[in-house]
Amino acid sequence: MTEAAAPAQLTGPQRAAIFLLGVGEEGAAAIMRHMVPKEVQQVGEAMASLSDVSNQQIASVLQEFSDKVSATSPISIGASDFTRRVMVEALGENRARSVLGKVMQGGASRGIDALKWMDPRSVARMIKNEHPQIVALVLAYLQEDQAAKVLELLPVEGRSDLVMRIARLDMVDPAALEELDRVLEIQLATNDDSPPASVNGLSLAAGILNNLETDLESEVLEKVKSTDFDLGEKIENLMFVFDNLMQLDDRGMQRLIREISGDSLLVALKGVDEEMKARFFKNMSSRAAEMLQDDMEAKGPVKLSDVEAEQKQILTIAKKLADDGEIFIGKGGGDFV
């Protein structure tokens, strides 16, 4: 990070890292206790990478935060409305909707919160002998990348069934959450009047499959389709695939290309049509595009598994940029973040 970088040029995690630096160790620790594991990881990585941060940068970030807080009148809006506005501003519409569904409608149990901090192997060991519906509920409330790692560690014969159970989740009865906590041996403070928690099962299933290795992703999706073709099609339509990168605007494509190594792009583009290749070439310098085209012609045939692996890596980079709000990818009339 350069000393000249202004807050508007920084990513969300970078601004958060500088803000935490500005409030000191005690204040930073108090704030981070309220973050979810993935947020802690993202901000922690940003903090570890900070260098040459000037007092002016810290002051600018703190002032930006102060201005936004001052512009909000807590008297004029209700608590739930305030929460929704802050969530949408911070996370974007789709991610905010997912989080709000868990936070404001009963939400996940304390047991699930504890599992989010655990190693995937420990989670898999804990739940592998439970009823598949209990396992599906656990996976649905984990972060998608963590859920994918847990799924990989569960018995192969049950993976497609779990993905279908997740995809079919809609409203989760409070009793199911109580049972989930019982299984996890953690007491849940709730009451019989708690509203059901909203779960977008199809999106969760698609997100989990997106985070699996390509071969395993295809295997599980095909098994789902063989059992319930319509459900499998719905999941597949929500999945983030390489073709979705065509929905990036030129600025977003250029931002993505800056994060991709030349060798990775060389292999990844061997498996796409001419239209997508042209889209990448268009957003590179003419010299870089010419060199890449020459290298692609000289390289010759490439294994499909290698192409898919590099495309998967590029999609991982794209999803991280989308999470940071640096690029926007729309699909099916909504944003994928």
Features:
single chain; 337 residues; mainly alpha; Annexin V, domain 1; 3 domains; two-stranded antiparallel ribbon
Q: Rg, please?
A: 22 Å
CATH topology of the largest domain: Annexin V, domain 1
Question: Could you tell me the mean pLDDT?
Answer: 74
Domains (count): 3
Q: Output the number of helix runs.
A: 19
Order of helices and strands: HHHHHHHHHHEHEHHHHHHHHEE
Residue windows where pLDDT falls under 50 for at least 5 positions: 72-80, 102-109, 186-195, 331-337
What class, by secondary structure content? mainly alpha
Give the percentage of residues in beta strands.
under 5%
- CA-CA gap between termini: 24 Å
Number of distinct beta strands:
4
Main sheet specs: 2 strands, antiparallel
Q: What's the helical proportion of residues?
A: 55-70%
What is the CATH architecture annotation of the largest domain?
Orthogonal Bundle
CATH superfamily annotation of the largest domain: Flagellar motor switch protein FliG, alpha-alpha superhelical domain
What overall form do the CA principal axes indicate? Answer: flat
GO cellular component, one term: plasma membrane
GO molecular function, one term: cytoskeletal motor activity
Family: Belongs to the FliG family.
InterPro entries: Flg_Motor_Flig, Flg_Motor_Flig_C, FliG_a-hlx, FliG_M, FliG_N
